[in-house]
Design goal:
The complex is a heterodimer of chains A (about 110) and B (about 300). Chain A has about 110 residues and is mainly beta. Chain A is about 0% helix and about 65% strand. In chain A, strands 2, 3, 5, 6 and 8 form a five-stranded antiparallel beta sheet that branches. A four-stranded antiparallel beta sheet of chain A has the order 1-9-4-7, with no helix packed on it. Chain A is globular and about 40 Å long. In chain B, strands 1, 2, 5, 7, 15, 16, 17 and 20 form an eight-stranded antiparallel beta sheet that branches. In chain B, strands 6, 8, 9, 10, 11, 14, 18 and 19 form an eight-stranded antiparallel beta sheet that branches. In chain B, strands 3-4 form a two-stranded antiparallel ribbon. Chain B has a single domain (about 5-290), classed as Jelly Rolls, CATH 2.60.120. The chains are: A mainly beta (about 110), B mainly beta (about 300).
């Protein structure tokens, strides 16, 4: 059976302005899915998103390429990542006046 | 099984020979085999996550790490590749917690052993030896529901205070003082207290110990920890770290009246605290919980 772990990287957290989730170690995994579940959102505006970042050391980050939508009303979104080395996180910047309250998950599988 | 035969079998196993378990191993967790029940700690809540006490809202969860450093690459763990890693946020006072939740069969001595190490995030080219505030372990225990006399919830807390407010400390502490209980929600079923608060820690007499921190932030040495506790008397029996055994006769656990839904609880909790605006990391290679179980368990409650 495969090893698996879902990490709750943000729980009932409000994101506004520039944000980044805490680094998650994932070297043991071969596939990752980020989920964002929006609990509530405020501030009208264009669709908001976060992007996946990877790192060799958990301290120096670069964009991996994947983007995940932040739902503007209660809902769930996801993105998939493979070949990510040992660390993963999400980063982004919300438009002025916009905030979302989220639960964010990283679902890892061997 | 004769004790000497048990010892021979035990020490013939290289995975077990580094431990000194009591007669019965309740669990032996090497994190190369996954999480094995260790999970994040969240405060209690009812109706909404907003009902979680503020101090409990962001205790960071465990992850599986292969100890990769920016300067030397991957080290792996004391045994194998993966460890259970706890990482705080980069904010002074921040904590990360892992808990395993079980119950107990017999109120007698239990022994917790672990191989651990702690370091700050290696973001500066400096020794950073006072950046990690503390690493600790606690049991969260409650009598069985048929316990004669006062039924209690008992929480022995032990931590190694590495540094506080930028000053090196290097000593073991316990906590007996309780934090206030708060009702959670409105159904009257749940209460919470933040027992990991900064207040109330007492120095263990004779508990000064210097650990091998090593000479740069990315070098880490593994340490051996052993904590002995008696579920019958609900008292400390012993504490050992590396070459030192400590007198725990002065150590006391927190006690409080038993709660409605925690009978026979045996939870084990590890945590790490950061002393500055930098992440602190605690790594567990392996954890072993053992007990002295009689050959036949009586049906009647223990006296």
């Amino acid at each position: 059976m495969r090893e698996s772990q879902t990490i709750v990287i943000a729980r009932n957290e409000e994101w506004r302005g520039a944000f980044a989730t805490e680094p998650c170690e994932a070297a043991w995994a071969s596939e990752a899915v980020f989920f964002i579940r929006t609990l509530s959102a405020s501030g009208a505006g264009a669709a908001q998103s976060a992007h996946v970042q990877i790192s060799p050391d958990g301290m120096n980050w670069c964009d991996e390429g994947e983007v995940i939508r932040l739902p503007g009303e209660p809902g769930v979104s996801f993105c998939r990542v493979t070949h990510f080395g040992g660390w993963l996180r999400l980063a982004g910047e919300l438009s002025p006046g916009v905030s979302v309250r989220v639960i964010a998950y990283l679902a890892l599988k061997e | 099984m004769p004790a000497d035969l048990r010892a021979v079998l035990h020490h013939a196993n290289p995975d077990l020979s580094r431990f000194d378990p009591l007669e019965r191993i309740l669990f032996f967790d090497d994190f190369d085999r996954g999480l094995q029940g260790w999970t994040a700690l969240i405060g209690n809540y009812e109706h909404s996550l907003d009902s979680v006490l503020p101090e409990y809202r962001d205790l960071r969860p465990p992850m599986l790490s292969n100890l990769t450093a920016w300067d030397t690459g991957t080290a792996g763990s004391f045994s194998g590749t993966y460890t259970l890693k706890l990482a705080t946020r980069p904010r002074a006072g921040g904590m990360a917690v892992a808990v395993k939740r079980t119950t107990y069969r017999h109120a007698g001595p239990i022994r917790l052993e672990a191989y651990f190490t702690f370091k700050p995030e290696a973001g500066e080219l400096r020794l950073s030896e006072t950046d990690v505030r503390a690493a600790g372990v606690l049991f969260d225990l409650q009598h069985g529901d048929r316990q004669p006399g006062d039924k209690l919830r008992v929480m022995p807390h032990i931590r190694y205070l590495n540094a506080l407010d930028g000053q090196a400390a290097g000593r073991w502490q316990f906590k007996q003082k309780r934090s206030p209980l708060h009702a959670i929600g409105d159904e009257g079923k749940t209460r919470s207290h933040f027992h990991l608060s900064a207040e109330g820690w007492e120095d263990l007499p004779g508990g000064e110990q210097l650990l091998c921190y090593n000479e740069i932030a990315t070098k880490q040495n593994w340490h051996y920890l052993r904590l002995d506790f008696d579920l019958a008397s609900m008292s400390f029996l012993g504490l050992r770290c590396n070459d030192r055994s400590f007198d725990v006769s002065a150590a006391r656990p927190m006690t409080m009246p038993a709660m409605a839904n925690l009978w026979c609880m045996l939870n084990i909790l590890f945590w790490v605290e950061t002393d500055c605006d930098k992440r602190a990391f605690l790594y567990l290679d392996s954890v072993l919980l053992s007990a002295a179980l009689p050959d036949e368990l009586p049906d009647e409650p223990s006296a």
